[in-house]
Design brief:
ATP hydrolysis activity; ATP-binding; about 350 residues; nucleotide-binding; Rossmann fold; about 10% strand; alpha/beta; 2 domains
Length: about 350
């Protein structure tokens, strides 16, 4: 099957839910709300149609993301909380609707957006939100440049996210105390009101670097008090990135030969020590450049090509990166000619 997109992405297993759990259980008051159970009744959670959908979503998250065990554990806890709330409702037990506004902190390329997407699926499956929708925005989408422009832009974003999740990336850029005329504070005030009054139809997720997010919430205690779940996304380890590389290549019908695997391991050791390393995002960019070098190498062979050559990335394709400087062998083309390294840094 041909991928509909170009470039390396995280490998994803077949994620279409089985027909038996494709429909989400959303009771309609007065029509299909289940009867209240007797106090001595027993309730099998596995019979709730939402349970199958939840397990499918959690399995999908495991397939999409390597590592992040603490993040996945927290997602499972949130799912368990809402499942138990559904079970309590069957016995007529009531409690305050749990707050699901969240903060995702971590460096770039650590899976925050992917987890937000799966969180929306999860909350929808459990009837907490109406739509499995994530509307992603940044400061530029919310803050206007002139008086009177910010409120309409913010309310438009909230309207698009209504019934689902509003994901605000690099949320700390909304707060610029050094500029008294900045309109970001107006966005925060609108968000505070909406997060409280629209709890039944909107989940807001703030995302960004840990230190900056801490400063952001410290300066806006009213906002912090409305965020119930603070989830940290650690940087990937070298071993996890190597696993991700294999999955990315497999997802695009490529493979790294043994020497290329060794070379990529060396590349990551060097690249991870340099500034602006963005975890899986930087790794994806590095593989894209390997693909460029492979294409140039194969075209320069000036002969018919075999399938195995078209899918194989070699050590020469990795060592061509300028990250190696003068520490690695100069890549050699198929005709034996030396090649210069590219001047990109594979960010």
């Amino acid at each position: 099957m041909t991928n509909a997109h170009n470039g390396f992405r995280m490998y994803r297993a077949d994620t279409s839910p089985p027909d038996s759990i494709r429909r989400t259980y959303e009771p309609q008051p007065g029509r299909d709300s289940p009867e209240i159970l007797d106090a001595d009744a027993e309730l099998d959670l596995s019979l709730d149609p939402a349970t199958g959908r939840v397990e499918h979503t959690l399995a999908r998250l495991d397939a999409e993301l390597v590592g992040l065990s603490a993040v996945k554990a927290r997602v499972r806890e949130i799912a368990a909380l809402l499942l138990i709330d559904r079970a309590r409702a069957r016995f007529g037990l009531t409690a305050a609707r749990p707050t699901m506004h969240m903060s995702f902190t971590g460096g770039p390329g650590t899976g925050k957006t992917t987890v937000a997407l799966r969180m929306a699926d999860l909350l929808h499956a459990l009837g907490y939100i109406r739509k499995p929708l994530v509307h992603s925005v940044t400061r530029d989408d919310l803050v206007g440049q002139f008086i009177g422009h910010t409120a309409p832009r913010t309310k438009e974003a909230l309207a698009r996210a209504a019934g689902g999740v509003l994901f605000i990336d690099e949320a700390y850029y909304l707060f610029r105390p050094e500029n008294e005329r900045d309109y970001g504070q107006e966005v925060i005030e609108i968000l505070l009101q909406e997060m409280e009054s629209e709890r039944s139809s909107l989940v807001v997720i703030f995302a960004g670097y840990p230190d900056r997010m801490e400063t952001f919430f410290s300066a806006n205690p009213g906002l912090s008090s409305r965020v119930a779940h603070h989830i940290d996304f650690p940087d990937y380890t070298h071993g996890e990135l190597m696993t991700i590389a294999g999955l990315m290549a497999e997802g695009e019908q490529f493979r790294l030969d043994p020497d290329a695997v060794t070379a990529l391991g060396e590349y990551l050791e060097l690249r991870m020590a340099r500034p602006l390393f963005a975890n899986a995002r930087s790794l994806r960019n590095a593989l894209e450049r390997c693909r460029l070098r492979q294409a140039r190498r194969l075209v320069d062979l000036h002969r018919p090509l075999r399938r195995t050559e078209l899918i194989t990335l070699t050590a020469a394709d990795v060592y061509g990166s300028s990250v190696f400087g003068d520490t690695a062998p100069v890549p050699v083309g198929g005709d034996g000619s030396g090649r210069s390294r590219d001047d990109g840094d594979d960010r």
